[in-house]
Amino acid sequence: MDEEQKTEKQARDRSHPTPVQLFLRTQLECLRRALTPFLMYMFMSMLGLAVFALAKNAHAAVKIALTALCLAMGVFYNGHLCYNAGKLHFAAYSSGELYRKREAEGIPVPHDHRPEREYRAWKGFLIGFYVGLPAVILSLAGGIVQLTASNGSIPTLLAVIFMLISGWAFFPITCAYAVTGVTISWFWALLMVLLPIAVSGAMYLVGAHSRARSRKPSARGGEDAK
Q: Are the C-beta atoms of 65 and 43 separated by less than 8 Å?
């Protein structure tokens, strides 16, 4: 009976994962954090596609301005969500450091701590990579289709599907085509993937730094304590 209870307790222990478990859980955590920003970008992509459809007779500058606004809204939500993720992960990191210190002193600690949710400087950039991963796949697929097509263009239905999913990455190409009328390789959309990576990584670090500063006692408070 005691052996069964011990085994059950060990099975519920999430605070001490193996290196493989920690790696897999970290990927799942970053994917989870990337899901909402990706959905926001996708929504803005749909909105941008609707703008192009409704304003097809408008001046190219108007189309570019409206699609840029859609992209900016996606970037804003991306930054806001990763800022909060950085704050939450730093709080988890602080708790983890405290637990590890207590364990070293022989003090029992909770078994429900999640090390995969602790702050690491590179996690924001990994979240951003996962946000842009569908765009990477679609831009590669679109570029290959262009290379194999006799006229160097992508079928309209396929282009619409790509734009609905990750249109934010293809906005520059679409705007350039609207201005010049020249078909541009969709491989260039790979450069746009750097946008969510940079935004996510930077705002994740800012959020963690903000949480770290809020946890430090102010100089005034220290003087008052004295």
A: no
Residue 203 makes CB contacts below 8 A (sequence gap 6+) with 78, 79, 80, 82, 83, 86, 124
Tokens of 94: 């602080």
Distance between CA atoms of residues 119 and 124, nearest Å: 9
Strands (E), 1-112: none
Terminal alpha carbon distance of the chain: 54
- Tokens representing 220 are 């005034």
pLDDT digits (tens, 9 = 90+) for 47-102: 988 887 787 777 878 888 888 899 999 999 999 999 999 999 999 999 999 999 98
Token pair for 223 = 């003087």
Segment (H or E) for 154 = none
pLDDT tens per residue, range 121-155: 999 999 999 999 999 999 999 999 988 887 777 88
Distance CA 32, CA 59 (A): 40
Does this model's pTM top 0.70? My answer is yes
